[in-house]
Amino acid sequence: MPTRASSIDIKPFSVRLKLHGDLEFFLRSGTRHGSIERSLNEKTSVKDVIESCGIPHPEVNGILVNGHAVGFAHTLASNAEIDVFPVGNCDPRLKEKHA
What we know:
This protein is α+β, with helices and mostly antiparallel strands. It has a single domain, classed as Beta-grasp domain (Ubiquitin-like (UB roll)), CATH 3.10.20. It contains 2 helices and 7 strands. The chain has helices at 46-52, 92-98; strands spanning 13-19, 35-40, 44-45, 60-65, 68-70, 75-76, 80-86. The strands form 2 sheets. It has a 5-stranded mixed β-sheet with strand order 2-1-7-4-5, covered by helices on one side. A two-stranded antiparallel sheet has the order 3-6. The chain is globular, with a radius of gyration of 14 Å.
């Protein structure tokens, strides 16, 4: 019988978020200009990672993970580059997801 992977089976990984538009507004002072790196030890939704940085999800219009448009429920389990776009400012690659 297959077993569900536990957090013990996940090797630590890092994610780098690049914030676009005015999303920097939500960062604590002293944070590098629009770029955040996090180390994770378990599978996590991209929404949880974004919100843990202080960015409310209603302020987010689109997300790219490694260049591919994803939704808030997308699960991160390995190293990733994440672009986060605010409402009113979006990358053309995000429109591909909704087409």
